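BUG-368 | component: ligand-complex export | severity: low

The export step for uridine-diphosphate-N-acetylglucosamine jobs runs without errors, but we want the raw record kept on the ticket for reference. Input record follows.
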Amino acid sequence: MTKVVHAVGARPNFVKMAPVIKALDERPGFSRSIVHTGQHYDPQLSTEIQNDLGFPAPDRFLGVGSGTHAEQTGRVLIAFEHALIEEAPDLVIVSGDVNSTLGCALAAAKLGIPLAHVEAGLRSFDWTMPEEINRILTDRMSQFLFTHSPEALANLEQEGIEAARVHFVGNTMIDTLRRLAPAARARVAWKAHDVSEHGYLLVTLHRPVNVDDPDRLDALARALAGFAARAPVVFAIHPRTRARLESSGALHKLLETGVRCLQPLGYLDFLSLQGGAGAILTDSGGIQEEASVLGVRCYTLRRSTERPVTVTHGTNVLLGEDLSRIGEIELSGDRTPCMIPLWDGRAGERIASVLAAAYAAEAGRANG
Ligand code: UD1
């Protein structure tokens, strides 16, 4: 029996790992334990998402919580090492690029436990993003690098990572989207916010570069208020963004101009709001991908994207950091869902196939 520890910690990890856990559960020869670091702990960012996904209950909750990058990553490293010593797995699987990803990967690597990274090879080439550091270091430590796009493969080749460790399997986040899109559509979540289908701009913003500097956040709030004079704006506000908007008084101004200021939503309600939007304005990584598959125009408020396939093959428009460009956003009900190679709902199965073949070969060597 090959024992696998699946590590999760923050909202996007659940969405990316659910298909991997399911596909490996269906394979004989694997047992598993799920470890939740507790990086995200609020119900809207953790348990509500898990419920929507039908995510299996984690076996361990490490409760690391929030803090500076060093505090959070360090707490994950220490707590996850304890968990690994008790679990003694043959393989650890991590996903994405959050601080939990790096902390868990480092603990596994230091204990000499093989590591698999789901969503390997993404690069923004912007080292000011904490996620870029997390991705690059996690890839360096991984024995199995599962990529979702050809450019990820090219990035890893350029960094000298041997091709035998890299497997182009597709996008597990899109596996989850394809599985749950009908249930999300049925929610018609926009109705609860008194806006019409295709008639609103959906906004999410949480990157430090956009929300941590009070002057920039204030200018952003003014730009959103300006847009709200043209068309309804539905703003799903991440806790870190809300805290900063509240302390600067900008939240009050947004509410006055009619911007719908929502708490973070569960997976199904948010997917429903994405599908019904006339356009999306975001600095998230995953939303660039989801919007492309849904065929909804996505405007990304960042100077770079680690997901260029969403620009070349999808609906993504990279706005840069210039807030005046928010005025360029057009709402539209046209839908041309983009077919990106291997974003077909079967990435989790491909990952399970690669791992089954690798561990069957290993068992064969051990027996013979
Ligand atoms: C993290 C990831 C980011 C990802 C995002 C998805 C890192 C470096 N960042 O950002 O890549 O896109 O998750 O949501 O790992 N907070 C709460 N409740 C919670 C968790 C956090 O209120 O359950 C607040 C706290 O004030 C905390 C702040 O949000 O200090 C930031 O949380 P943190 O986990 O450090 O990063 P995110 O901004 O959520």
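Assignee comment: Attached the raw record above. The longest strand covers residues 2-8.
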